[in-house]
Amino acid sequence: MDTRSRRRQSEPTETAAGKGGTEGGLLSWLAARGLIPETSPKRAFATATFINQIGKGLFISGAALFFTRSVGLPVSHVGFALGAAALIGLAAGIPVGHLADRRGPREVFRLAIVVQALAVAALVFVRSVPSLIAVLCVAELATAAGQAARGPLTRSLGAPNPTRYRSYLRALNNIAVGCGALAAGVAVQLDTRTAYVSLILGTAVAFLVSAAFTSRVPPVLPVNAPAEGGRWLALKDKPYVVLTVLDGIMSIQTQVLIFALPLWIIGHTEAPRWFVGASVAVNTALVVCLQVRVSRGVDNNAAAGRTARRAGAAFLLATALIAAAGGAPGWIAVVVVVLGVVVHTVGELWHSAASFELSFGLAPEYAQGQYSGLFAIGQGLSNAIGPPLLGLVCIGWGEPGWLAMGVLFLATGQVIPLVVNWSDRLRAHNPG
Fold it and tell me: Is residue 348 assigned to a domain?
């Protein structure tokens, strides 16, 4: 073989190596700036989560219209079915979390997403309220199962700083849900059976693709539990149960900007109607840009407790600002509401970082899934009681109601560090 032949054969290899080096350099550059996770398993799970949340954005933005305008079910019946399924789904958290502790969270998470995809796809065959409730219950049980397994999987992949990794995922999730919502807007605009069916099936496909990417995440080995620990440790852990309740109360804040604030802007201020969407956009942009930065330093129980306390104070200030917008002239109302949204978002970022750190920091290593399932119940109940409570207090009572909710958030934030200390004392006396 002559020199030119050898050169021609070596050229593809050199080119491929150059491309690999360029790709590796790009990944390193992006990781160094915090734009992508630094390891391949973290990137695979982030991709799986991103695609999963696109599906979530599709579903939450168009499902209700699919049930009412395409299937033809009454709005009241659809609301009942969604609420009932959500409450039933909460029951899966603790047992599935226990299963994740014993079998490994990756396998449980992947299976939950596949079941969720199949259940969502089955919605295209729904024609009655009973069948809707049945299919939604399966979907919500799978969602709760996935949430219970996602927590310990995130913690394992994110070590040694899982809160920072979780913050990155949360920022990414906000972008994904927004993308899904925009895509759902196309189906809503077309307003045809074909468009709505495509939306539902697109959601199912997104979940399946997410499950496929999860397969690229290395399995997490279960941690052996002590024989004398008992089966349902989470329910016997009094400080953790109290923390779950307190975090559930604090989590009502997630409904403030998406439920109570739009009603307040339209019905009680002179701000323009278009500002409803703009206020949510401000919140989303701040979460995407600041979640990782705000989570720095929240890497132990004591720091998380202090951060929760600051979050409660921020929520009080935010509700006071939003209340002050009532009856103010249009441009003043806009400025005050923007300030309220910014302060509320800072509190939301603090609460998110503290909540994640405490949900795992106060749980034993061998029961992360079970504890995660319990913690999710508090957050799920907050989604159920948040809208009616905010509607009664903030919208029904007006300015005093906003202040009352702020005081509730403040008081909750003040108590959380005390519960953290209580839990740490008990674990010091009963290690393992």
Answer: yes
Strands (E), 48-178: none
SS3 label, residue 172: helix
**In sequence order, what are the residues at sequence separation of 6 or more whose Cβ sits closer than 8 angstroms to the Cβ of residue 46?**
36, 37, 168, 169, 172
Which domain CATH number covers 120? 1.20.1250.20
Q: What is the dihedral of CA 248, 251, 253, 256, to 10 degrees?
A: -90
Tell which residue, 343, 416, 375, 349, has the closest CA to residue 164: 349
Query: pTM to 2 decimals?
Result: 0.77
Domain span holding position 256? 227-429
Peptide bond before 219: cis, by omega within 30 degrees of 0? Answer: no
Question: Average pLDDT for consecutive 10-residue bins of the chain (432 residues)?
Answer: 42 42 62 69 90 89 84 84 80 76 83 94 92 90 83 81 81 85 84 91 95 89 63 83 95 88 86 78 84 83 94 97 88 91 95 90 82 85 85 92 96 96 79 52
Q: How many CB atoms within 10 Å of residue 161?
A: 14
Sequence letter at residue 17? A
The phi, psi pair for 260, rounded to 5°, reads -75, -45
Indicate whether 193 and 234 sit together in one domain: no
